## 1
Amino acid sequence: MRSVDLRDVVLTTPRLTLTSWLPGDVGPLLEVHSNPETMRFVRHGRPESRAETEQLVGCYIAEHAARGWTKWRLADAEGSVVGRAGFGGDDAVRQLAFVIRRSHTGRGLATEIAEALVGWHLSHADGAQLRAIAAVGNDASVRVLQKAGFVEDGTEDFDGIACHSFVHPS
């Protein structure tokens, strides 16, 4: 990882940069997480409050420092936050996850970052299995995961949400 300002740059793609978070990123992430359309398939479709977003950014900062991976800050070429992407889970099973700002969907950004994160995982797997879920009805995310090489292996309930379950055959 290289550093830009005080951020660690995790990876770059032709149009995106994935970096660590700073406390000042609460506002830009809140813009993403407070949009009902963006959150339609995330956390029961409920936009998040500022307090919830502050807690998330703090958690992401702590996870990145402690284990070297989290759900990182996703920015476009101009440095504007377009979402978050990375991994949840634990050292045995990582869950690939992404949220893209509604105004930036339909441009292939989710596929671009998902494929890059699969590559990052393969280089930093330490034996961890790679999985992902997509809420039933979220056909766009299902297509993204399939393009990134994931194979559907059933359904599961995630926090009361019916989801397609995927595994990466890496």
## 2
Amino acid sequence: MFSGFLRIAPSCDVCELDYGFADAGDGPAVFVMFIAGFAVVIPALLVEVAFSPPVWLHLLIWLPLTVAVCVALLRPFKGVLFALQYRHKAEEGRPDGQDE
């Protein structure tokens, strides 16, 4: 499905399905930001309340963790949204009367 880390291939290597119909846009990034935000901010707040570490230590711990969570989740979420577009036959919206 992917030809790069986040680049969708033009077609399937096995069944030659044309992937030109699908465009996940910014959808995966939005979901990943919400999940990463909750997954990182809540523990960061708990650590702040329990231990009160200095700001540099927060940055040292939570910034790399945020980046790792986002990078780990972005590709699977893009794949899921791509598959949902295929499953539900989602296409680009067109004004009424302008069907192909």
## 3
Amino acid sequence: MHPTLNIALPELEWIGLLRDQIAKGRTISALSRECGIARASLSMLLSGSYPAQSLDLVTRKHGARIVRLYRGAVLCPHLRTSISAEVCRGHASAPMSTSNHEKMKHWEACRVCPLKPEVTAR
């Protein structure tokens, strides 16, 4: 038996988007079909009873699609929040920064990001 921690963690953005859809009257079954998540898994995610110790794997698998569907944005794996497609393109096409450590880390993350948009030459 795993002990539970009573720590109030912030809700993941993509789960909040799903909760918003439920609040608008959408059914779990409809969301399940639309998002490609098994209905039972989606129900457990929304109720907070999903059996995984961490939601990292589920977030990597479904989070980006849900943010794109319901917010029209990109779930940036580096920033761990949604950004507009335009901002994503801006980060992906930005030149390498050698003077700012955080920008350099973001630049490196963009190089290998599976969500990286096609960038046209400036």
